[in-house]
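Supplementary notes for students who missed Thursday's class. We covered one full example, reproduced here. Read the sequence, then the structure, then the short commentary at the end.
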Amino acid sequence: MWTGAAEQSIQAVARRTMKTRILMTTLLLASLAQAKEPKAHQSGTLLQMDSAECGVEENSGKSVVGELVGTDSAHKKTHALLCQEYLLQSETVIYRIRPRDEKHPVLLPVGEKAQFRIRKDKMLLQVEDVDTKEREYSVVSMTPRQDKSTTASSNK
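Structure (token representation):
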């Protein structure tokens, strides 16, 4: 029934359709493989807030007249700059963190639950009672949390 040329044409269309399907399936699988699940937030409790020394501010005691005449002493006044430092306890680790925005730090409620995740070199922290904004914190130190069973056996 079919002529040779028409049969070849139908087979060529079928091959192209099959190649297109294979290509689309490959692209779909590759995109699914590249898709990453967003990191889930961990939960923790803000245990305490301390003021920690994070630098020194210097004020020179020189005056303009003293500079011009050369009679002013080089007296410098220095005082320590204090930063907020929090203890955040998760299931396995106790983090000591400081806000990265030193000029406008937000006072966090101690004793409240917080959600956090670590991305690259910073901790993104969100306290639901304050607002829904994630704020950046620097991790100063991390201490493994002791299990309850370890402390119970050491008390015996």
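Commentary. The first strand starts at residue 42 and ends at 60. Strands lie at 42-60, 76-89, 93-99, 113-119, 122-126, 135-144. If anything here is unclear, bring it to office hours.
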